[in-house]
Write a structure and sequence with these properties.
Length: 225
């Protein structure tokens, strides 16, 4: 159960801070002895700066995304999952999302070996708008490579930038490409494992009026099966 808070700096024509808290429950569902379905839901709670003088900050819920991965119950090597992602028009304010549904493929790959301090992989998806709506149609790509180096005692170094592309935008306004990383620590709160991390990313490419820096704080509650 990750709670990921992203603070984006210098957003909009007035260079205000934007805050997005992503509540991201991940639930494994056993299909049979060979296959699992793993669901990943992202519910964004957004605080958006005013884009015009005299405007008010907008707070509310954005569009929820639900991904379902089909994954082997007993991986032979790397852990992988393939499935579909659905974007739901759940935004509480027009400025915080799009009124069209979205659908697309998603894939995740993870390399995790006992005794190896390196953990790495990637998540990728593409979401196309479907159906009618008053907002513009969209075609959005996301790639999140991730790598951890684990030390004894639960400390680790991490980097998990989120690269995005808006295929409908002009070529010079299409990509957001962050570089950066941070540190993490796994500890126990009673019997409950808790994974915490703090990282920072600089966007070497981004559209006009998009953030150039991001500070990410994540707290992940882990409920062993």
């Amino acid at each position: 159960m990750p709670f990921q808070n992203n603070t984006n700096f210098n957003v909009g024509p007035r260079d205000g801070p934007q805050n997005i808290l992503n509540i991201q429950p991940m639930i494994p569902i056993e299909v049979n002895s060979e296959w699992n379905v793993i669901t990943r839901t992202i519910m964004p709670v957004i605080s958006q700066p005013a884009f015009a003088p005299g405007g008010d900050r907008i707070n509310g819920i954005g569009d929820i995304q639900l991904t379902a991965f089909l994954s082997p119950a007993v991986p032979g090597g790397a852990i992988w999952g393939a499935g579909a992602i659905v974007q739901m028009p759940t935004n509480s304010n027009d400025a915080l999302g799009n009124d069209r549904w979205g659908l697309g493929p998603s894939f995740v790959l993870l390399n995790l070996k006992k005794g190896d301090p390196w953990v790495y992989g990637f998540l990728v998806n593409n979401v196309w708008s479907v159906g009618a709506g008053s907002d513009a149609s969209y075609n959005n790509f996301l790639l999140q490579p991730f790598v951890n180096y684990n030390f004894e005692g639960g400390f680790y170094l991490t980097s998990a930038p989120i690269v995005t592309a808006d295929w409908k935008a002009d070529s010079g306004q299409r990509w957001t490409v962050p570089l950066g990383g941070g540190v993490g620590k796994i500890f126990h709160f009673g019997k409950l494992p808790v994974n915490t991390q703090l990282s920072a990313y600089y966007n070497v490419a981004h559209p006009d009026n998009a953030a150039n820096w991001q500070l990410r704080l994540q707290v992940q509650l882990m409920f062993p099966k």
